[in-house]
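Two folds, back to back.
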Amino acid sequence: MNPFRVVGVIGKRRDPDLVLLRDLCRSLQKLDCEVLLEPNPALRSVIRAPLSDRETLARRCDLVIVVGGDGTLLDAGRALAPAGVPLLGVNQGRLGFMVDVAPETMHEHLAAIIDGQCVPEDRMILSAVVKRAAARDSLAHLAVNDVVIRNQATIRMIEFETWLDDEFISNHRADGVIVASPTGSTAYALSGGGPLVHPGAQAIAMVPICPHTLSDRPIVVGSDHSIRIVIGQDVERVRAMATFDGQRSVALDAGDEVEIRRAPLPLRLIHPRGYSYFGILRDKLRWGSGPTAPRGRV
């Protein structure tokens, strides 16, 4: 890859690590990078860098470094993916499944990454359109991980139909349903009993949440299809909603539809050299029971 020369920096909105962000910006400046910092009141007194909103970051940056947890990267990803700006995640959270650079190794990797010596990866993301039964307008949303249809408050099942393109799949009674990208297969969908989907797969997983019928199991479809979810007429009693990456939500009424498909552009991630998806699974999720390094053939 070509070297990165204009680098944006995004920190956690709440409780950012000021020392880590300050050191990152100083290191970037020493590498002759122009640094643009997303506005954050907590950073003004400790970091000297031009403040730029996300529209400016999307327009000007070759790379954006996100310092925070997976939630911070999801939020930045939805905003910057349409512009094709690659993101590098530095973990200031707990799990750090997507923000895979540890703070203690950040400076070790930084010079090589800025010089273009890194592992680029495109991740498929989702586009969801909410179509109102009582109106002609529709609302479009992006989701890096998942779109979740569920009850807003009480523990009560909702009824909904699922369609693949124009083909009817089934009627469902469940606490809700998760529609996940391959990236999101290791998030809420995994907790709901869904499969692990390799991030290179062009696929979408649909995972029911606590279905009333035990045979109502997860299904994986190709990303060239759309999944359509139609809210049943009993929704007036349960107040359904659609949630995008667990961060943004809209209320749903009876007859409303949520149509989910692959977004036109992927989320571009940057990893340090030596990155391994299965290494992340073993390290972060304690996945598998075999050795952490290959033993070779017997």
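---
second:
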Amino acid sequence: MKHQYKPLLLLCLVFLAVGTMFCMNDILLPSLVEHFKMSYFQATMIQFSFYITYLIFPLPIAWMIHTYGYKISLLIALVFCTLGCLMFIPANLFDSYAIVLASIFVLSTGITVFNVAANPFLALLGDPEGSAIRMNFAQVFSRVGYAATPVVATALIYSKTGGIRFHLPYALLAILIIGIAFLIFFSKMPSMKAEEEDKFSVKGIFKEVRAYPHLFFGVFAMFFYVGAEACTAGFFLPYLQSHLGFTPAEASRYLTLYYIFAGVMCFAAVFILRFVKTHILVGIYGISMIICYLVVIFFDTGYNEFFLAGLGLFLGIMFPTLFSLGIEDVGAFSGSASALLNFAIVGGAFFPPIQGAITDKFGVNISYLVPCFCFVMITVYAFYFTKAPLLKRNFKFK
């Protein structure tokens, strides 16, 4: 398999920064509950502000990519991410939760541009059969960002005097993102565009998706997956702190372990996918996730923190593999298919408030029924609704 390694490595640096920004939501939620004296439902507006951009912007972003190419789109993404990170400084100065939510929205707009652009770009940086391998390789860097963030960000946010400096990690992130943007700007990264015959139109996107049933159902699978990931990580620290009695520092170490497991599995998936079909791996891992969730919800084993962290082993491969299953064999439609799949990321805005409301009323352990249900739906997709389902189906898409 051939891969274009130089632009691939530059993209991996962006994945590293994006992974860090994603993980910051998980650290921010419990710290702001404490700082602003909020309920968990109110705090999940962090997740809502972060993920709602995926409902608003994917199609305009797909038009931008079609018109200006991937390199310019990535640079625009980094500008928005930098601006969003810097907005946390006035949010801290004015002690304003509203400005925090606005900062997250702007930052997430940049991440949305990146996600719509980066994944189909990865698919083009080499042979088509190596697409899933490249996506999992890039996700290793994302998971490194996830893994390093909990301990580092917790140390930065919680001062020795007991104060909460929620702006500090974001100020440092802004510096990192500016550096990556300069590297990409002065690089010879190819600015690929959609094929000329692939004329962009919103009507055309929804009309052509009918030719790809596996993409249509893949959008729903992605909706449930992102909801499950946002719920699992977003309530990870509250589960350990309120249900198991851990301190923030102790809990952050297990969140780091969770992301280390996810990163290791992303790296391992690069090799596993050479021998196991993608949809079968998703189905097997989906069943494993469901078992772990049920233990965390209903049992007190004395090792629940390890079962919770162990979810990362199976969750780590889900985004790139579901994405590659969705855009499999869609050809020049890959850019628009990416926009549709990124619409589904709004699941991260839909499910956490439900879990927050359940947490406030019934406890954080019971609230994990929400991501458990999501993975039931993902497992059904893997075994029944992919391009090459394990189970025979008679459904015809019209």
